[in-house]
Each structure stands twice: as C-alpha cells, then as structure tokens.
Amino acid sequence: MKERPRTGTIREKQFVVEANHAIDFSDAQMPAVLSTPWLIWFLEHTAREAVLPNLDPGESTVGTDVEISHLAATIVGETVTCLARIIGVEGTQISFHLEARDSHELIARGFHKLRIIRVDRFAERIKRKTRQLSA
Fold first, then answer.
1. CB atoms < 10 A from the CB of 37, how many?
2. Residue 81 and residue 88: Cα distance in Å, rounded?
3. Within 13 Å, how many C-alpha atoms sit on residue 51's CB side?
4. What are the extents of the domains in the chain?
5. Positive or negative CA dihedral for 119, 124, 127, 133?
6. Does the structural domain 10-134 have CATH classification 3.10.129.10?
7. Taking a C-beta distance cutoff of 8 angstroms, is the pair 84, 46 a contact?
8. What angle do CA 111, 117, 123 make, to 5 degrees?
9. How far apart are CA 125 and CA 20, in angstroms?
10. Predicted confidence (pLDDT) at residue 135 exceeds the cutoff of 70
11. pLDDT per residue as tens digits for the range 65-92
12. Does this model's pTM top 0.85?
C-alpha cells in the first residue's frame, strides 16, 4: 500500500440504468427497474475506486461485507449517483458508508468492507483450490 487510505475520503460515480441492469422478471405489469445486484455492483466499484490510488502494483481489493438497503425503484434511462465514503481503516480492511441517489430520491444506503490483497498470493490460493477440485 502506497499510503494508508484516509477516513473521510469520498468517491462518487454516476451511471445510467440500462436494460441489462434491470430486474429479469419484468413484464407487461411489472416495470423494468434497476436490480439490487447491479446496484450493489456499482456501489462496490465506487468504493474500490476510492482505494485504487493507495494501492501498490500487484495489489487489488476484494469485497468482504455488504449491507445495503435498496430503498426505492429506479427506472431504465435514469442516472444514478453512487457515493462511497471511507469510515474506517484497520490494517488492510477498509470500511465504507455507501449511498445511491437518482434524480428523485435516495435509493440506497448501507455499508461495505473491502480488503486489500496481494494478487500473486490470491492467485496462488485459487490455483490450489482449482487443483483440489480437479483431483
């Protein structure tokens, strides 16, 4: 880690809800709206971008905890703004408060934790698991 991420650091990221981000069970009666898994994906990537400047070459992040309340529906075509604020740093674990808003209201809030990892060690662990699965 180049330097320890600072508590209070904020990252904001916007995206437009596309048809592939919508729930997969919409129909003539159920409107196509942003799915919770996609919302979490965008929130997690916003948090990750807050930490990337602090990483050394060969380091990355993995998510370890997600606690999100999806509060309101967002239609396809709407712009969503995700916000991630670092609220704690303990060694390689970074804690975030997350929020997402569309042009009408707060649509989500919650907490997330990322861990900074060494990619080579992580890849070796995955190789061991793969070999065990193949055996």
1. 11
2. 22
3. 30
4. 10-134
5. negative
6. yes
7. yes
8. 125
9. 33
10. no
11. 999 999 999 999 999 999 999 999 999 9
12. yes
